[in-house]
Amino acid sequence: MILRWFPDLKVLSFKNVNFNTNISSIIGKALSDFKNIKELSLENWNLNVAMAKDIADGLMKAKQIEYLKLSNNSQLGDGIFSIIYNLAFSPRIQFLDLTNIPMGGSKAT
User: Is the model's pLDDT at 61 over the cut of 60?
Assistant: First the structure.
């Protein structure tokens, strides 16, 4: 994985991305492996529930995460709940941006 070349990485930021489930599992693994990551920004993605689970699994092990930005993920739906739940394992969380995310399984059209 390319991230091994950056052992002191503190920020992962991906905006306006149309990735698939493979990239979300890589990000989840990076969150697990790179304990120094403090900020994760996944704004304007097409995150779905399966992708959210991969991210949530990584967040459960990302003990240093302080800032999480997930704004404008209209397909996220109920996946947001697994992410929020796993943030309980992130004692340093200070900022959570959930702007324009439909709650309760609704999807924007």
Answer: yes
